[in-house]
Amino acid sequence: MLNPIKLASKNFLSSLDTSLEEFLHILELAKNFKNKDLSIKLQEKVLGLIFDKSSTRTRVSFQVAMSRLGGTTVDLNPTTSQIGRGEPIRDTARVLSRYCDVLAIRTFKQTDLEEYAKWSSKPIINALTDLEHPCQALADFMTIKEEFLDFNDVVLTFIGDGNNVANSLILCGALLGVEVRIACPKGYEPNSLLIDKAYEIYENKNLLKITNEPNTAVLGANVLYTDVWSSMGEENQKDEKEKVFNGFTIDRDLVSKADKDAIILHCLPAYRSKEITDEIFESHKSRIFDQAENRLHAQQALLSCILQ
Ligand code: CP
Ligand code: NVA
């Protein structure tokens, strides 16, 4: 039976907090959980959830994952706890890590997440920040592996905003050696520090391409991925971005230029007829709901490594 290995890093703040071997191990565990080939019971472990932003998938998949592992979750609503009143992170982290065995945090600044990690005696998981969404990327690459069996020669094209989801895809692509092309409007490129980090990791530097040309970025691609144009916290940019992102919708025309067996991914929630047409969202090429389901299996795998 496959046993979860202890990860070298205490925390999972970034996609780069796992080695390539650890990343593949988590995907293998996740597959086993999904196929019901693996059952792990961690007695009385508690996951604390601190979500400064809304969530459906991440929150519920963490709750169900803990339940399946024989543990439980405490959902700390910032508006009804002292977090919303501005209790310093260093105090909250020191208190909660005396009650909980692990904390999953969704917040704005990556530096705030790092502050939690600095003061918490227990592991911290990034449940999304403005910079990264590493739990999402685990499920994304699990879904890609389900489809193509391995990552050899897979071309992943992300069309849209160079946001947290794009950043995590770039870092995982570098780790796995997957060709990643990002097509975004000028001025909306992914984080330049993370791009530099990715180039340092890629053995073949040609495998990462950042472009402003969606039509060339999709040529022959195996996976077309998109996300909302305005992320949580950017609501005031919505109107402006909708103008700038004209031409960056995944539609029939863009899909026709990709590989004929290309699949479509979206981390959800989606705005139909903005970043993706309803026709493509609902098409036979879509693996969007498998991808959403895989959040559960991937996080169950991650937790089983972190909590053992
Ligand atoms: N994809 C994702 O993280 O969804 P939620 O915002 O619903 O958690
Ligand atoms: N980029 C999106 C992802 C939501 C899961 C956001 O940060 O709002």
Identify the overall geometry.
Answer: globular
Using the coordinates shown, work out and report the CATH topology of the largest domain. Answer: Rossmann fold
- Rg to the nearest angstrom? 19 Å
What assembly state would you assign to the polypeptide chains in this entry?
Answer: single chain
Properties at a glance:
308 residues, alpha/beta, Rossmann fold, 2 domains, 12 helices, 41% helix, 13% strand, binds phosphoric acid mono(formamide)ester, binds norvaline
Written account of the structure:
With 308 residues, the protein is α/β, with parallel strands linked by helices. The protein contains 12 helices and 9 strands. The chain has helices at residues 20-34, 57-68, 89-99, 110-119, 134-148, 164-176, 192-201, 214-217, 238-244, 252-257, 278-281, 288-306; strands at residues 46-51, 72-76, 102-106, 124-126, 155-159, 179-183, 208-211, 223-226, 263-266. A 5-stranded parallel beta sheet has the order 7-6-5-8-9, with helices on one face. Helix 5 (134-148) crosses helix 6 (164-176) and helix 5 (134-148) crosses helix 12 (288-306). The relative contact order is 0.16. The model has no long low-confidence stretch (mean pLDDT 97).
Could you write a compact summary of the structure shown?
Its EC number is 2.1.3.3. The chain has 308 residues and is α/β, with parallel strands linked by helices.
